[in-house]
Fold this sequence. Notes:
Radius of gyration: 26 Å
Shape: globular
Order of helices and strands: EEEHEHEHHHHHHHHEEHHHEE
Distance between the termini: 52 Å
Structural class: alpha/beta
Number of helices: 13
Largest sheet: 5 strands, mixed
Amino acid sequence: MKLTRIGLDLAKNVFQVHGVDQSGHVALRRRLSRNQMVGFFKKLTPCLIGMEACASAHHWGRVLQEIGHTVRLIAPQFVKPYVKGQKNDANDAEGICEALSRPSMRFVAIKRVEQQDIQSIHRIRSERVKQRTATVNQIRGLLGEYGIVVPKGINQLRRALPEIAEDMENGLTEAFRNLLEDLRRDLAHLDERVKQLEKEIQKVARKDEAAKRLQTIPGIGPITATALAADLGDARHFKRGREVSAFLGLTPRQHSSGGKAKLSGISKRGDTYLRTLLIHGARAALRTAGNKTDPRSRWVIRVSERRHRNIAAVALANKNARIAWALLSRGETFDPHHIQRPTEGTGRIETHPV
């Protein structure tokens, strides 16, 4: 069977295949079980296979590439306009196949196993931090019901819990003191888990060459550097730094029509976790920028004086994302006294680290 393009709709156990020949005519519609996947695609001559970038897509992308096929992952929102009729597996596979044929279609890079390992550490850490925050809020809420208010801050709560437990005149019953002790142990356990995961991240940051280069950028530490390196991987699949900042939702949201450009706040598209790390890191860099004389620090100070500090922090996060693209795609090192030159053919200024 000579196929040139295949749309593959993924699932846990049932997979739908839609293939077309060189002339674009439908040559294959088939449903496969999980056990049939590898054997079926081994029998086909190498062709172009498209899948939505969803759960297990990176795994199957690596498997099919090893067989000899060319695999492209497409964001689900870019597939939806090409799905005809009502939603079912067959229509989804056909829509993926059609979206794959578009010359201007954007694709998602297939991640290596090592990248997914690092992302898993970050996801587990993020979940543990959320659980810790929920536990802290629960303790505060329960204490408030007994008329005990603890100052803001997780460290304030940690210090206050032993004092509250030892105070026999605060009106707490023995039953509630036992519950409070259980919550305190839960909080201590979550603190320990977060510390362990952060040690793992720091270990990766010391070994990974890309992460070490990224950490030279002010405002990017081990956590942000490893998250960026795992998410972007080979950044050369982005044409320019602005595509990275747009991918992370750090560019203005646009709603333009009739030749009138309307820009508002940042779009907040893409990975919320990574965008949050970049903005928090930019806030930290902004606090120390006033003591520095390099062009980048002077620029962000001028922005913060002219606009709000929050706007300056987001602008710095945007710039850091673009610089990170340059370091990852070109293998360069960061220099705060960077050279600025016009981008060829545009007249726009683009940052090029030395």
